[in-house]
Every structure is written in C-alpha cells, then in structure tokens.
Amino acid sequence: MSFTTLALISIVAMMGLETSGEPIGVSNLCVGVPDGYFVRDPNDCQAYHYCRNEIATPNKCPGDLYYNELEQLCDHQDRVMCHVCLEKTGVQILPHPQECNLFITCSDGASFVSQCAEGYAFDRNTKVCNPMERVSCDKEHCPEEDNPNEIVFLPGVERCDEYFICRAGTAIQTFCAPGLYWDAYNKRCDVKENVSCSLY
C-alpha cells in the first residue's frame, strides 16, 4: 500500500471522528446509558426518554408533572429543579433564581445546578463565585408554604420573557407568550415598550 493511499485513509478516518459542535440531540441522549434507564429531556421539563441499546424512545409525563431523573419517575414540579436552557450551543453561566450561593451552567442546551464553596456567592456581573462580602445579593426567596391568596413571582435569569412562579418553596421556570416580556414591577407579561429589563 502506497504512502498516498495510507494518508488518504488516515484523513478520512480523522474526518469521521470530528464533532459537529451541535447541541445534545435526542439521538445521542442514551449513548453510554444502561438499558432500562430513563433520562430527562434537556429541552422540556415534562419529557423523558427510555434508553435501550443506546436508542432513545421519547415519553412525556401526564398533566403538569415534571420528570425527576434522580427518582426515575414523574413528580410534582416543586420536587424537581428543572431549568430549560434557552441557548442550545456553547456554555452559559447563569445566576440561580433564589439562592446566592448557587448558579446554573448551560452546556450545549443541558442545564446543571452548581454550588459555590462555603463563604462564597455567585456574582452575576463577573459570573464567578466571589467572597460573600464582595457580592451584592438581595434575591427574593420562595416561601416554604404557599398562600392561596397570593402568588409569588421571581424575575428571570436568562431572558426578559422568562420568570418564575413559586410553588411549595420551589421556583418553577415559566415564559411569557411570544412577543411579551416579564414586568417584574407589575408582576405580569407586557409589551417590550412597557417593560424595564436589564437582560436585553
């Protein structure tokens, strides 16, 4: 076999190993996952996939239940921390909606909640954990118990049409209808001209 032929085979082999940089898709959610395991869908808090022979079969929780991958079952929203990343490529670091020492990492559309070291808090301006005394953190918190006469809302962390509804101490990610933005002052969705949002 000539040197030229070997070189061509090597180039073709290397081309086959290149990654596309595309976000995590349904087709590869089950790669390396044991048969019979259910994985959550990175784009939908209610959706999950059954893995068999590294093939993902989609399913969805009934009603308004979210999929709890740790417990391997559909669960109440207030028992599941689910954040759908709006950017599907690259890495974004976002503040947690409630806790100063937590932050959310979005990696190619998949979200992970992380915690700063003890004595540190997440600085939304520098997007790193800094000593607490250097971080301005005046986050609202969801009450542990719901008041049926008062719905508690928290502002979004990623986009201006995002907001959170508190339920049993958990902040549940929600979005305004297309074309509307969350008005944190009046606690409602409104047209862009009427909303002051620092996330534009």
UniProtKB/TrEMBL annotation:
One example GO MF annotation = chitin binding
Q: Which UniProt keywords apply?
A: Chitin-binding, Disulfide bond, Glycoprotein, Repeat, Signal
One Gene Ontology cellular component term attached to this UniProt record is: extracellular region
Keyword Glycoprotein: yes or no?
Answer: yes
Which domain of life does the protein's organism represent?
A: Eukaryota
Write the signal peptide boundaries. Answer: 1-21
Which Gene3D superfamilies is this protein grouped with? Chitin binding domain
Against Pfam families, the record matches this protein to: CBM_14 (PF01607)
The Chitin-binding type-2 domain is annotated at: 27-84, 85-137, 139-199
Q: What is this protein called?
A: Chitin-binding type-2 domain-containing protein
